Amino acid sequence: MLRIIEKPSPRKLVMSPGQKVSRKYKIAQQKRLIKRREYKKLKAIVPSVSKKNKVPKITVIEEAIKYIDELHVALAKRMHLLSGISPAYLPYQITPNMLAPVFPFPQPRAHQAAVKPATKPLQLSGVCNTERRR
């Protein structure tokens, strides 16, 4: 009589419940470490909080937003001075076509023009990820 013995596939690891808990804990711990590291990087970039010792994460994010807004306004003023773009434009209304006279973009080569740009938005690793993974 022949018996069919199923062997677990090499990709499928059989883990005990304790190993599963341990693995989940390690993954969660690693995610926390990555988030902490990314907040430290963001804190180091933002001038208003970079010198402070203990700053809540929400404050770091709020100050980063303010800093980005300041940079947008400075760019709009610089563009107005260099190219004569009306100051009535808010920084959020500036398009790449308006930037072309001030900051010329390199023209794509013939073989690069056929490549489609990525449609997935750029994400900061762990800092502002609103997508939930299941």
UniProtKB/TrEMBL annotation:
<protein>
    <recommendedName>
        <fullName>BHLH domain-containing protein</fullName>
    </recommendedName>
</protein>
<dbReference type="InterPro" id="IPR011598">
    <property type="entry name" value="bHLH_dom"/>
</dbReference>
<dbReference type="InterPro" id="IPR036638">
    <property type="entry name" value="HLH_DNA-bd_sf"/>
</dbReference>
<dbReference type="Pfam" id="PF00010">
    <property type="entry name" value="HLH"/>
</dbReference>
<dbReference type="GO" id="GO:0046983">
    <property type="term" value="F:protein dimerization activity"/>
</dbReference>
<feature type="domain" description="BHLH">
    <location>
        <begin position="19"/>
        <end position="71"/>
    </location>
</feature>
